[in-house]
Write a structure and sequence with these properties.
heterodimer, A: 259 residues, Rossmann fold, 9-stranded mixed sheet, two-stranded antiparallel sheet, 7 helices, 15 strands, B: 322 residues, 5-stranded parallel sheet, 18 strands, 27% strand
């Protein structure tokens, strides 16, 4: 069972995002990065499947040079090898451009299953998985809360508004995991040491068959017209509790005529 | 000529979803609204779509659209788009909506804009506002591909309003190819939610990791009872299994807009803010004075929830004469 996990590496959650008004993007370069926790869940799920069924896990990341820290993190968790699409030509890709680049890299490899997060923790668009599945011609099982593989059959519990739906398809397939599907393991020292020796294969857009005008900012169908800070909410009253915090809220609720 | 704007209709809990009606209202305001509704739906579904402004409904009640995920709907909608070429097609940022729009955006190589909070049409091009996720940044985007623009709309972005029409109905043939039947839905499981529901509640009391353990949600239930409200939660505590998913407020949970939102032990992660920051009044209690939630609060108490909440509950009981 060979699994490719698409893993996004994002600015660390502690970072306050800076904007580049000229490029109309957020600033990624020079910012500390980390493996997206949503992607870590996909890697964890892949590792559990291969631990049970055999096979290997390959991590696939499209991102800047700083993304290596997240790739090493995934390898330290136990992924066997990694692919890094590293090329200024892919910077500024929209969701579809990202899916095209990932699909081209996946097609160069052998796999039974493609795993990814349903949505990243920094932009939440939630459509790259569906685009990727279509480009690869794979059945898409999204928002998976639980995964079971039995021979060629894969079954998931898919999050729904009212509970969950049980869905099944034949391998090869793409599964996008929902948040909370598992608690990703922390890399152990042994894993961290081993990760340093594992291969990270690098691709450029051209090596994947994409011209600089087809992906990245130049090829994006979605163009950002403007970017800015949201209007600030009128400043509220922030007080430190000195023993009457509960009463203050009760007074405020009374002012609002809720009580 | 008025722009043709389509809405991908969805049925949730045996009725047309609120987001479908919100989108229809907006579509009818900007142009000629039409809806596509695939799969089993209640008897009054077409009439409901008409009430909110749909002049025409493309309809199939074939079970294939419910029994198999995504592909049958994608095939049917793609054929309709090719034939009628609407200027815009709106999808809810829902589980089903996202998958169908994603596949169409790849199939037509046209892209899509996700998480849209508002949009305008100018000479056939679309300008969409993607509201900030929490306190970070927001942007406006357009789609440069020719043809139908696909937009995924955030729930509660528009106020639903009735604009009664008697819609013309056009039957949509179900796709015949076996290739579309690849992901089979074998079972639908409803997890019964407990207590008053978040939707429509005037007061929402939510808890996050700061509550430290699931049993401490009892305090929130007490407070919600006193205020006639519902209890919500952050993704972190839903993921930890403390409370069911039906209580999740946030980008991947429910979007709420109550009059009063009380955030207890919630730091204000982007994910959570997206689901509640449109609340009219926000009150928060958190230990950390730097917690982002305070930037969105009308009243913020920097303090220990285990001291502030019991006092608040006692105080309310006293004032209510209980």
């Amino acid at each position: 069972m060979n699994i490719i996990v698409c893993a996004k590496v994002i600015p660390a959650s502690s970072v306050i995002i800076e904007l580049d008004p000229a490029a109309k993007t957020m600033v990624r370069k020079g910012v500390p990065h980390e493996l997206d926790p949503a992607a870590a869940s996909a890697i964890e799920e892949a590792l559990r499947l291969t631990e049970k069924l055999g096979g290997a896990v390959t991590v696939l990341t499209m991102g800047i040079a700083d993304a290596v820290i997240g790739i090493r993190g995934a390898l330290a968790m136990g992924a066997h090898s990694a692919i890094h699409v590293l090329d200024d030509a892919v910077a500024g890709s929209d969701t579809l451009g990202t899916a095209k680049v990932l699909a081209a890299a996946i097609k160069k490899d052998n796999y039974d299953l493609v795993l990814c997060a349903s949505e990243s923790s920094d932009s939440y668009s939630g459509i790259v998985a569906g685009q990727l599945a279509w480009l690869l011609g794979l059945p898409a099982l999204t928002f998976a809360k639980e995964i079971a593989v039995d021979g060629k059959k894969v079954t998931i519990k898919r999050q729904s508004v009212t509970g969950y739906d049980v869905c099944e398809a034949e391998l090869p397939a793409l599964i996008a995991v929902a948040s909370g599907i598992n608690e990703p393991r922390y890399p152990q020292l042994k894993g961290i040491m081993a990760a340093k020796k594992k291969e990270i294969k690098k691709y450029t857009a051209a090596e994947l068959g994409w011209g600089a005008d087809q992906v990245g900012a130049a090829g994006a169908k979605e163009k950002v017209l403007s970017i800015g800070r949201p209007p600030a909410r009128a400043a509220g009253r922030i007080v430190t509790d000195e023993g009457d915090g509960g009463k203050q809220i009760a007074d405020f609720l009374a002012e609002l005529k809720v009580v | 000529m008025s722009d043709l704007i389509w809405v991908y209709g969805e049925v949730v809990e045996d009725r047309i979803s609120p987001t479908t009606l919100e989108m229809l209202t907006k579509a009818a305001e900007l142009g000629t609204a039409e809806a596509v509704l695939l799969g089993p739906a209640p008897d009054n579904a077409v009439a409901t779509l008409g009430e909110y402004g749909a002049r025409k409904v493309y309809r199939s009640s074939d079970a294939v659209f419910a029994d198999y995920l995504t592909s049958p709907s994608v095939d049917a909608v793609a054929a309709l788009i090719e034939k009628h070429k609407p200027a815009v097609m709106l999808f809810a940022s829902s589980y089903g909506g996202r998958d169908v729009a994603a596949a169409l955006s790849a199939r037509f190589d046209c892209g899509a804009i996700a998480d849209v909070g508002d949009f305008v049409l100018k000479d056939g091009s679309v300008e969409a506002t993607i509201p900030a996720l929490g306190g970070s940044y927001q942007n406006t985007s357009t789609l440069v591909s020719p043809g139908t623009k696909l937009l995924l709309v955030r729930p509660k972005s528009f106020e639903p309003a009735q604009r009664p029409q008697t819609p013309e109905v056009e039957e949509v043939p179900a796709p015949a190819n076996a290739e579309a039947k690849r992901v089979r839905v074998t079972q639908r499981v409803t997890v019964k939610p407990e207590g008053p529901q978040l939707e429509g509640s005037n007061v929402v009391v939510s808890g996050g990791r700061g509550l430290k353990a699931p049993e401490h949600f009892d305090m929130l239930r007490q407070l919600a009872d006193l205020l006639g409200g519902a209890v919500g939660a952050t993704r972190a505590v839903v993921d930890a299994g403390w409370v069911p998913y039906s209580m999740q407020v946030g980008q991947t949970g429910k979007t709420v807009k109550p009059n009063i939102y009380i955030a207890c032990g919630i730091s204000g992660a982007v994910q959570h803010l997206a689901g509640m920051k449109a609340s009219k009044t926000i009150i928060s209690i958190n230990k950390d004075p730097e917690a982002p939630i305070f930037k969105f609060s009308d009243l913020g108490i920097v303090g220990d929830v285990f001291k502030v909440l019991p006092q608040l509950i006692e105080e309310l009981k006293k004032r209510k004469g209980k």
